[in-house]
């Protein structure tokens, strides 16, 4: 719906739109009221546009504004809603701006105001608790209870921060009131940390008991470690609340996911077992959400077993972490080979989505002498077959690259659409005529027209490709492709290769034979098939093409088969 839709018939606008100041518009524009109104609409602030959308009953526009501008509505309405006058505020809105009072309008505004009011109440509660304003806290809590806002204070899964802020500010009255308030989920992890920091032993014990009742015994220690609350972790450990098993569980959960000083503290207790350390080490290296700082710390400790180092190295997804392991740990040759193969996505698994990371891994690991030639070749062939010229360029000049792998890569690249990649892989000294023939058949079946033409040029090199292979490749390519454009091009190539001005009968016979090839289907599904050329048998009129052919006794007649013509 046009944002500039007019108000319902009969509705007056108490706040008429004004022409923008200092605006100089052409007379032709000034003569078009609807254009001026549209320009004025575009110049509105979000709040003014919200009022206009509601006033005119333009619900799609109203919903869009409330969504795109964080549900912005006039602040007076938000304050009224936060004071428990939500529905009254909406009614005043309708009455003041002469809005069309529809159920849809009411629903959208109520939802917007309610969310806005809840957020406002949440912010007020946190600030009031942190500043020790008990009366304000009581008012907001009462309002939240009456309007069902309690659970909406869960901005995070941990709960509201009001209690922790009150403890940090040492506002005992506010703390006592919040602890007695029902229906609220306070962030007890932050509250416990605040109680420890402020040396409030009574609150420490009380919050520990509350957390145990809500989440279960001994869980607070793990949660404190997870959230990096060092003072709380130290308190519970020193006072006998953390068993060796609990310390190991907290270490595994924390070190395997993110870095904090708690990781160092837990390890320094001397209670971390080798098995738990290895598990945390593998998680820290292979997980995508951990930091390199965690990996550096683990390497500094020199505790990981050979098995853990190998597993972590192979499963690492970050080249930077792999580099840290190579510089600080002893990694076996087998692990380096496995990591190179997996990170390079050999054996069909190369993905362009991870191409940048694959290139980094190849640069980092590819120069290791322990990686055998066949592994280098497999990654090279896969990169060519998946049209990844960056990886092909990195590995092309590797001294371990065999000619066999270059040939496989050339055939694989021919089936793609990158002509430059095919050109980069062509090497007359390495590629046999049979390989070029296989590449041409692949290109004719799946590659682009440019690739087909490029390989035709390679096949036309009489000094490198024997005539029989060259002509055979063109004929077989006709059967390999269903693309009529490619078929026509290949036919032209065949004619160019076979045509001899001294033997016009030979060309005419070939043309007649090709003209009678049957066409099956239409459009993109059209395909050609070779007919039985025995129907073309005619009285033989022998002719000789050259002195060499005459000496070999080679001959061909208008009634010869296509194979005889090509082999003539």
From TrEMBL:
Sequence segments annotated as region (Disordered): 1-20, 526-568
Biased composition (Basic and acidic residues): 527-554
Name of this protein: Uncharacterized protein
Source organism (scientific name): Phytophthora sojae (strain P6497) (Soybean stem and root rot agent)
């Amino acid at each position: 719906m046009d944002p500039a839709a007019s108000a319902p018939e009969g509705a007056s606008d108490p706040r008429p739109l004004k022409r923008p100041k200092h605006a100089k518009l052409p007379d032709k524009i000034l003569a078009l009221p609807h254009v001026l109104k549209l320009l004025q609409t575009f110049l509105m602030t979000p709040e003014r546009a919200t009022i206009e959308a509601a006033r005119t009953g333009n619900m799609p526009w109203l919903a869009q504004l409330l969504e795109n501008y964080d549900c912005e509505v006039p602040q007076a309405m938000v304050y009224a809603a936060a004071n428990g006058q939500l529905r009254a505020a909406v009614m005043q809105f309708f009455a003041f701006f002469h809005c069309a009072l529809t159920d849809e309008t009411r629903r959208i505004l109520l939802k917007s105001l309610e969310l806005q009011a809840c957020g406002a109440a949440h912010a007020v509660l946190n600030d009031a608790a942190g500043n020790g304003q008990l009366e304000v806290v009581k008012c907001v809590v009462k309002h939240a209870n009456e309007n069902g806002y309690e659970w909406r204070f869960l901005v995070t899964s941990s709960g509201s921060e009001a209690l922790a802020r009150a403890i940090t500010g040492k506002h005992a009255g506010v703390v006592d009131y919040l602890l007695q308030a029902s229906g609220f989920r306070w962030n007890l992890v932050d509250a416990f940390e605040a109680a420890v920091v402020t040396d409030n032993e009574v609150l420490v014990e009380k919050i520990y008991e509350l957390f145990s009742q809500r989440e279960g015994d001994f869980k607070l220690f793990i949660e404190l470690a997870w959230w990096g609350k060092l003072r709380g972790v130290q308190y519970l450990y020193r006072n006998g609340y953390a068993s060796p098993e609990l310390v190991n569980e907290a270490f595994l959960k924390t070190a395997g996911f993110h870095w904090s000083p708690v990781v160092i503290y837990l390890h320094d207790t001397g209670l971390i077992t080798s098995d738990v350390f290895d598990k945390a080490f593998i998680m820290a290296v292979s997980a995508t959400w951990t930091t390199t700082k965690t990996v550096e710390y683990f390497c500094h400790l020199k505790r990981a077993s050979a098995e853990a180092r190998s597993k972590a190295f192979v499963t690492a997804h970050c080249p930077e972490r792999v580099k840290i392991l190579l510089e600080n740990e002893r990694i076996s040759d087998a692990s380096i080979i496995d990591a190179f193969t997996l990170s390079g996505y050999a054996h069909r698994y190369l993905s362009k989505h991870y191409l940048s990371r694959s290139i980094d891994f190849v640069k980092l690991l590819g120069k290791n002498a322990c990686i055998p030639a066949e592994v280098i070749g497999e990654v090279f062939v896969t990169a060519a077959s998946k049209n990844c010229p960056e990886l092909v360029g990195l590995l092309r000049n590797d001294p371990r690259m065999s000619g066999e792998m270059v040939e496989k890569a050339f055939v694989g690249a021919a089936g793609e659409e990158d002509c430059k990649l095919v050109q980069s892989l062509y090497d007359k000294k390495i590629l046999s005529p049979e390989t070029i023939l296989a590449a041409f058949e692949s290109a004719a079946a799946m590659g682009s027209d440019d690739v087909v033409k490029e390989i035709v040029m390679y096949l036309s090199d009489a000094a490198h490709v024997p005539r029989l292979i060259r002509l055979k490749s063109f004929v077989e390519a006709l059967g390999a492709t269903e693309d009529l454009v490619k078929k026509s091009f290949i036919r032209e190539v065949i004619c160019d290769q076979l045509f001899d001005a001294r033997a016009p009968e030979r060309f005419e016979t070939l043309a007649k034979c090709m003209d009678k090839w049957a066409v099956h289907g239409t459009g993109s599904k059209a395909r050609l098939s070779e007919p039985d050329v025995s129907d073309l048998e005619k009285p033989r009129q022998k002719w000789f093409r050259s002195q060499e052919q005459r000496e070999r006794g080679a001959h061909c007649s208008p009634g010869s088969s296509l194979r005889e013509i090509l082999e003539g």
